[in-house]
Amino acid sequence: MRYWVEAMRKFLVFRGRASRKEYWMFVLVTALINVGVLVLAVSSETDSPGQYLMFLLLMLHLLAIQLPAMSISVRRLHDFGASGWWVLVLWVIPFSILVLIRSGNEGDNKYGPPSRFS
Question: What pTM value is reported for the model?
Fold first, then answer.
């Protein structure tokens, strides 16, 4: 837990290094928090205010954790000699893949008819 707290305190520190243990303990604690809140949300009565509150807490946590996660990722990349800018590639690729694997429009669109291979 102390690694997670330390990472949260260094949320604006993009210089220096983070060890494997520091990074993975941060990831583990963050995942446990997310799973815990998600379990509470799912186990709440359907459409109850408690369920909505748990999902809201989960979304707020996911938003709040972005900057500390990026910071510790940059410091982790520094630990093995890579530029911190690589974190942008590592964060953009999953979203790019999601966009590229979705199905196309049915029928014609402004770019022409569907591919004959679809």
Answer: 0.73
